[in-house]
Every structure is written in structure tokens, then in C-alpha cells.
Specification:
272 residues, alpha+beta, Fructose-1,6-Bisphosphatase, Chain A, domain 1, D-Maltodextrin-Binding Protein, domain 2, 5-stranded mixed β-sheet, 14 strands
């Protein structure tokens, strides 16, 4: 936990320091369970035709809920695998948890997945933690306190031209309904940028925009737990996050575009 000392020192309030510490502790506890379960046989349950959940998702979520419950008693928690909590979006302040973003990758032994935890207040993120257990990288941010990776400040890229940009994206589970639009956007963007990456974990893609490994990211049909933490990371790293039409972002809208700000108008234009 010493890697959040520097981010905590930049928090604008003692309450934010406590909340960041709580989120970091919960993410690391879940990450340890995930790492132990990696490359092992899994109990897989299907939530849709291609949308799956493993026993490790459930164990990690239980660990996060227990940890946050102990450190921040009384705070509502919206967690991906606990359907009964999905109505917490009406609360004034609540945690948003994805215990294992990139479950398909995890189940196939593809080491690109992460724990994502954010605190939303009045619809805006105040605290964000994204932890990737296989690389042991802890991304974190607080409102007004900057964005950090393993205790070091991070910034978005300065790339100014699309042809020099590496852009991330993802494909929704509902491809039977969205495939034509997804392919139109993919063709429009791929023809104008250096390359596209589709790695399969939106929270981690957003963290990669924040630390400069990607210049931008877009996707549709995401859920609040996919984007809430990454949203704050990108903005605190100097980037911009909007919906697909360029409007104010909310994790309850179904499209997201994130970039280093300079590329944003051009990327939006391609997507539209």
C-alpha cells in the first residue's frame, strides 16, 4: 500500500485520502485472489451467449464488498455480479465495482484484465482505482489530486495527429444488434490512425489512455462499472472524456470517447 502514499499526499481532503486508501486496499485484496486463480480450471456460468462469469469474479467481488464495507460502513455499493445492487445509481454517493474487468480474457488465460473501483458522488467520480494483478500495476486518482501509477504521476500523450495515434476500442456483447455500426466505426477509424488495439477490458484501456500507452479509446454499450474509474483517471491525467456525440459523459450513457484532448474533435468526427 506504500505506492498510494504519494497520491494520498495530493488529495485535497482527509476524507478523500481515507476513501482512496479503502479503494486501494479492496482492489489489492481482490487482485490477490485473481492472481491465485489465474491459469487454473474455472467454473464458468454464462450470463449471455458470449458473456461469462467465473467463480473468481464472485470471490473477488465478495472480497471487495467486505473490504469496502469494513472501511466505509454505510456506503452503498453497485457491483457487477450482484444484480440486486444495480439500483444504487439513484444514491447520492456510492461505490461502483467491477471485480474482474476482462473476464473472458481471464478465463482464456490472456493476461489483460483488472479490478476497477470508483466512488461516484452526484454522478461524478471522486476516487478511482484500477489494479491489474498480473503486472502488479495500481492506477489511482482522486478528484483534483492527479492520476498515478504505482506511486508515480501519469499524463496522457501529446500526440496531435490521428495518423500518429494508437487507439483502443472494444466490441459489445450484443453484436447481433450492433455489428453494422461497430464495423462502420472500425473502418472509419482504422483508415485514419496508426493502428487500433482491441484487448478486451475497457477499464484497463482507459487506464492506458491515462498513462499514455494509448492515445484514445472508444466503445459502445458499456456499463457504469466498466468506465467510472477510468473516466476519472483520464481526466486527472489531463485527458478528455465525452459520450459518443461529444456531450458530457456519464457512466450511465452507453457510449464513451476518451483521448488526450488534442485528438478529441477529430476522433469524434470519425466516429460520427
Amino acid at each position: 500500500m506504500n505506492r498510494i502514499q504519494a497520491p494520498c499526499a495530493q488529495c485535497i481532503s482527509g476524507e478523500l485520502r481515507q476513501l482512496l486508501t479503502a479503494a486501494g486496499r479492496a482492489a489489492l485484496a481482490a487482485g490477490q485472489l485473481i492472481k491465485q486463480g489465474y491459469d487454473q480450471p474455472h467454473e464458468i456460468t454464462m450470463k449471455g451467449v458470449i458473456n461469462l462469469v467465473t467463480e473468481v469474479d464472485l470471490a473477488a467481488e465478495a472480497a471487495i464488498i467486505a473490504s469496502l464495507g469494513a472501511d466505509t460502513p454505510g456506503f452503498p455499493i453497485m457491483a457487477e455480479e450482484s444484480a440486486a445492487t444495480h439500483g444504487q445509481g439513484n444514491a447520492k454517493q456510492f461505490w461502483v465495482v467491477d471485480p474482474l474487468d476482462g473476464t473472458t480474457n481471464f478465463a482464456h488465460g490472456f493476461p489483460y484484465f483488472a479490478v476497477s473501483i470508483a466512488l461516484l458522488a452526484d454522478g461524478k467520480p471522486l476516487v478511482a482505482v484500477i489494479y491489474t494483478p498480473m503486472l502488479d500495476e495500481l492506477f489511482c486518482a482522486t478528484k483534483g489530486g492527479g492520476a498515478w501509477l504505482n506511486g508515480r504521476p501519469i499524463r496522457v500523450t501529446g500526440t496531435g495527429q490521428l495518423i500518429a495515434a494508437l487507439i483502443g476500442t472494444g466490441f459489445p456483447y450484443e453484436l447481433d444488434q450492433t455489428l453494422p455500426g461497430v464495423l462502420r466505426q472500425l473502418a472509419a477509424v482504422l483508415a485514419k490512425v496508426r493502428d487500433i488495439r482491441r484487448a478486451g477490458a475497457a477499464a484497463l484501456d482507459l487506464a492506458y489512455v491515462a498513462c499514455g500507452r494509448l492515445d484514445g479509446f472508444y466503445e459502445i454499450n458499456l456499463q457504469p462499472w466498466d468506465t467510472a474509474a477510468g473516466w476519472l483517471l483520464v481526466e486527472e491525467a489531463g485527458g478528455r472524456v465525452t459520450d459518443g456525440s461529444g456531450g458530457d459523459y456519464s457512466p450511465f450513457v452507453r457510449s464513451i470517447v476518451a483521448s488526450n484532448r488534442t485528438l478529441h474533435p477529430s476522433l469524434l468526427q470519425l466516429l460520427q
